[in-house]
Amino acid sequence: MSRRYLRSNAFKYSYSEAGYPERPQDIVTFRCTRNPSGTQASAQHFFQSSNFCGIMRTISGAQLAEHKSRQSCWLAVHGKVYDVTGFINDHPGGAGLLLKSAGKDATSAYQSIHNPELISETLPQQALLGEVDTSTIPVEQQESDVASIGQQEAQSEYPALSSIINVDDFEQVAQRYLSPEGWAYYSSSAEDETSKQDNARLFRMLKLRPRVLRDVRAITTSTKILGSDSSVPFFICPTGLAKYAHAKAELNLASAAGAENVHQIIPTSPSMSLEQITEARSSPIQTQYLQVYVNRDKEKALSLIRRAEKAGVKGLFITVDSPVLGKREKDDRLKALSLGSSAPNAGVAKIASSTLLNPGLKWQDLDWIRSATKLPLVVKGVQTVEDAVLAYKHGLDAIYLSNHGGRSQDTAQAPILTLLEIRKHAPELIKNKKIEIYVDGNIRRGTDVIKCLALGATAVGIGRPCLYSMTGGYGEEGVKHMISILKSELLVNMGLIGATSIDELVPAMINTMRAEMEVFGGVKL
């Protein structure tokens, strides 16, 4: 074999220095940066991660096909081959989905659900094995599992959109439309799902105290969120794996939000790129934010912030309520079926392998983010008055009361209860409007919105209903209809309670006595 050289600005590197490949088909292409020392690189220095940009070998379809088991699972995505063996137990959709594509070109199945960037951001660098020789992969008919990826058009079995009269109606359609994996992912909550149930229960404990004989002929639901106008005091929450609901996923949400002048929070790991979603704005005044799980690598975290700034988002929602992954048993049961009885319990390994979550995140890291950007910062996932006060002291622009829809820690108190806790122990945050406060957690009715606003919230977040409203083939029109339903209920109930604007919704309109019995009294600030 002749010597082959890679010429770099600082050195030239030959195969003989690293050893010849054992087989001709394993000849690799080296891509590297300048050697910092300016001298010829040794093999050891060359392979250090700080200087290494990638080793790419060409892998044939036959080689790829050899690795299609749980013990050795390779798949090709966008021309690159990945070893996902160590990720099988952690895959949110279960091992079965990965094994179904094992040893094959999985690009079609992958992009039907995920953002193209996600695989490189999630898997470790060593999982990338090389480039696949696409000419050696047999052309196979793609399976049409349309129900699992939400691409089917509305059919006669799904009700006409006009017959959907409340937000919960969308959930009933979604349960029939979604694949078992999609339904489990969207609907699941942690362990016994007590927190998810409490989110709804606490709203039922709050009673309205309507005022009468008030002129309510002209009612407006408009408000400002982080200084930007919104037609309604609610926004679209960040949600993952939106392509289970519809192929256009976040594009539907972006377009509908712009048409209705509703603010949207883009998730950290959307089904498509951040730039695609921001370019889908349908209005020049449209407001979008970005949810941020702060990466353990500060350079990567900073890179995401710069991308967000360039894309024109108006604020960052730093998610802090999931330092580790909660135990969602609907998900786990489906995964167990696909893994089989011999599969090990991922346990702590599952937590450690997650690149999205950052168990080391501290308040000081938020100070660092504050120094790195001029964008408004919101801390998402506050669950106690103590942390609400800390958020104010650390200069955050808003606090977002949330228990992650009950998906993280079971029996964590409902966000509306945290709002009552703030009213009791740190009322100055609300009375003096020192900081904006957002609330989510099973908000399904206009009356739920009114209760939050009257008790001091600036706005509320809508999560699962945004996903459910896209199913059944409804897409963007479904999202618009869901927004219209909630806005209509808000208008009607503002009139019934005697308020013509958001500012006229006051605490005296809400009877909180039953719920206040559950407010924690041992707070020390």
Automatic annotation (TrEMBL):
<dbReference type="GO" id="GO:0005758">
    <property type="term" value="C:mitochondrial intermembrane space"/>
</dbReference>
<keyword id="KW-0496">Mitochondrion</keyword>
<comment type="similarity">
    <text>In the N-terminal section; belongs to the cytochrome b5 family.</text>
</comment>
<dbReference type="InterPro" id="IPR000262">
    <property type="entry name" value="FMN-dep_DH"/>
</dbReference>
<feature type="domain" description="Cytochrome b5 heme-binding">
    <location>
        <begin position="56"/>
        <end position="133"/>
    </location>
</feature>
<dbReference type="GO" id="GO:0046872">
    <property type="term" value="F:metal ion binding"/>
</dbReference>
<dbReference type="InterPro" id="IPR037396">
    <property type="entry name" value="FMN_HAD"/>
</dbReference>
<dbReference type="InterPro" id="IPR001199">
    <property type="entry name" value="Cyt_B5-like_heme/steroid-bd"/>
</dbReference>
<keyword id="KW-0285">Flavoprotein</keyword>
<comment type="similarity">
    <text>In the C-terminal section; belongs to the FMN-dependent alpha-hydroxy acid dehydrogenase family.</text>
</comment>
<dbReference type="InterPro" id="IPR013785">
    <property type="entry name" value="Aldolase_TIM"/>
</dbReference>
<dbReference type="GO" id="GO:0020037">
    <property type="term" value="F:heme binding"/>
</dbReference>
<dbReference type="Pfam" id="PF01070">
    <property type="entry name" value="FMN_dh"/>
</dbReference>
<dbReference type="InterPro" id="IPR018506">
    <property type="entry name" value="Cyt_B5_heme-BS"/>
</dbReference>
<keyword id="KW-0408">Iron</keyword>
<dbReference type="InterPro" id="IPR037458">
    <property type="entry name" value="L-MDH/L-LDH_FMN-bd"/>
</dbReference>
<dbReference type="Pfam" id="PF00173">
    <property type="entry name" value="Cyt-b5"/>
</dbReference>
<dbReference type="InterPro" id="IPR036400">
    <property type="entry name" value="Cyt_B5-like_heme/steroid_sf"/>
</dbReference>
<keyword id="KW-0349">Heme</keyword>
<protein>
    <recommendedName>
        <fullName>L-lactate dehydrogenase (cytochrome)</fullName>
        <ecNumber>1.1.2.3</ecNumber>
    </recommendedName>
</protein>
<feature type="domain" description="FMN hydroxy acid dehydrogenase">
    <location>
        <begin position="159"/>
        <end position="515"/>
    </location>
</feature>
<keyword id="KW-0288">FMN</keyword>
<keyword id="KW-0479">Metal-binding</keyword>
<keyword id="KW-0560">Oxidoreductase</keyword>
<dbReference type="GO" id="GO:0004460">
    <property type="term" value="F:L-lactate dehydrogenase (cytochrome) activity"/>
</dbReference>
<comment type="subunit">
    <text>Homotetramer.</text>
</comment>
